[in-house]
Amino acid sequence: MVLSIRKYKKDECITFKSTKGHYGSLSNMAPNYPIHINGTILRTTEALYQALRFPNYPEIQKEIIQYASPISAKKFGRRHLNKTRSDWNQIRFKVMKFCIELKLYQNYDIFSKMLLATKDLPIVEYTDKDKVWGATLEGEYYVGTNALGRLLMELREKVKNDKFELIIPEIENFRFLSQIIDKNSVPNNVYKK
Ligand SMILES: Nc1nc(O)c(N)c(N[C@@H]2O[C@H](COP(=O)(O)O)[C@@H](O)[C@H]2O)n1
Question: Which intervals hold domain NADAR (predicted)?
Fold first, then answer.
């Protein structure tokens, strides 16, 4: 999937750069949003997203999720990029959509509040160089694909319209710790609406 570049007026959007600041919880690195999947609890959506690159390597997934720091988890994944599933670039946005939907599904009270607090403003992941997931500052504008910000805005609309449901994407070999991910992988007993 190829997404177009967007431009957002600097003073007219909600930004997050790291987990710090008022909207830091929108970041995949944010702690306090545990994810329950296939009987395991992960600390962050970042760890889940990074682990899902490696469906055929449960030992790499295990190592990724044991890091307390999501940045370290991501760095560890970087060391094994050659083992990334071959269709990753085609599916990664779908995977990310699933990760943030799961974050909401299992942390509904606090995450829905955070999404709604952004009102109708554009949400932008402000980064120094990642124009795919976020956008960089160019004069008066943030410029980039801002894929994460756009997925968060899409999710916010579903919450606003009471249309949110967790959808398990149709992805071949969608596996975590050797088990296929399906509805039974993700308990909803932690879901409060
Ligand atoms: N290195 C780093 N530090 C941060 O503080 C970040 N927010 C990010 N971006 C996040 O990295 C994920 C994408 O990883 P890939 O580069 O596709 O492996 C995604 O969660 C971005 O929001 N990176």
Answer: 16-159
